[in-house]
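Tokens for chain A. Residues wanted.
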């Protein structure tokens, strides 16, 4: 049976707390950007309209970023990804960047990395894996080694690699994150999935057991535990883990994956 990694990636989780791409040229413009981004979270279609008006008023990168975020929230991932990557490319050369004290701002490496990282996730959700890989590699080439930003981008690259079934790379990146931050326990479920993909069931079992001890009510943990049991041919244990997922959540990607797996082993689930 082909190994797979089930990862609960949602737009809300991935775009939560977006970094401001630039500092606006005035307090008023900064507030306009903040308001537009807040609107993108609540009513993205209205935010897009406001962003387009702002772009016609020379709003530059902040206005374009608000539009891209609105598209992302509307699940127009391919359109959002293309815009985010174009923003990153323009930021590299100073195009559309705000002017402060008479000088056009220049994007820093971390600012560019953040934008390429956002583009990578949008490409991933658009099922454009090659583009996602290119964008995440660009992001990682710009970060400060050992920084929290590098760690977050390594987790994102691991997700992308897992979707592409490059489990060795996914596991390597996640273990790098562990080395950077040994207290980072939330990624244990991803480590378990990646280790399962490489066939290292012992490492996968250790990671998922530790994860579930810390987060016993996390459905993604029970989903992965079921996946691991299934890979090892322990169907009854797999069934119990997937049923546990459905006892915790009725809807969402974890519930959908659990139902699909249960149906695959001939269990009817309403």
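Reply:
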């Amino acid at each position: 049976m082909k190994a797979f990694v089930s990862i609960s990636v949602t737009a809300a989780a991935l775009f939560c707390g977006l970094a401001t791409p630039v500092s606006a040229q005035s307090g008023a413009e900064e507030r306009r950007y903040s308001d537009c981004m807040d609107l993108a979270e609540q009513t993205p279609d209205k935010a897009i309209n406001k962003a387009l008006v702002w772009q016609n008023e020379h709003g530059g990168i902040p206005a374009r970023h608000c539009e891209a975020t609105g598209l992302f929230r509307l699940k127009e991932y391919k359109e959002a990804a293309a815009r985010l990557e174009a923003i990153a490319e323009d930021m590299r050369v100073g195009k559309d960047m705000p002017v402060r004290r008479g000088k056009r701002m220049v994007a820093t490496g971390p600012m560019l990395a953040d934008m390429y990282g956002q583009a990578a996730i949008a490409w991933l959700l658009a099922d454009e894996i090659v583009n996602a890989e290119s964008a995440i590699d660009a992001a990682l080439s710009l970060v400060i080694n050992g920084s929290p930003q590098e760690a977050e981008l390594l987790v994102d690259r691991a997700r992308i690699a897992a979707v592409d079934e490059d489990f060795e790379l996914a596991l390597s990146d996640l273990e790098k994150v562990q080395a950077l931050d040994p207290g980072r326990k939330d990624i244990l479920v991803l480590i378990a999935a990646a280790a399962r993909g490489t066939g290292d069931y012992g490492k996968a079992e250790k990671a998922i057991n530790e994860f579930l001890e810390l987060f016993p009510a996390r459905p993604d943990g029970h989903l992965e535990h079921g996946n691991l049991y299934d890979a090892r041919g322990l169907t009854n244990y797999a069934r119990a883990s997937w049923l546990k997922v459905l006892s915790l959540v009725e809807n969402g990607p974890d519930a959908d994956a659990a139902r699909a797996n249960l149906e695959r082993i001939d269990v009817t689930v309403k």
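The mean pLDDT is 89. Strands lie at 99-100, 103-104.
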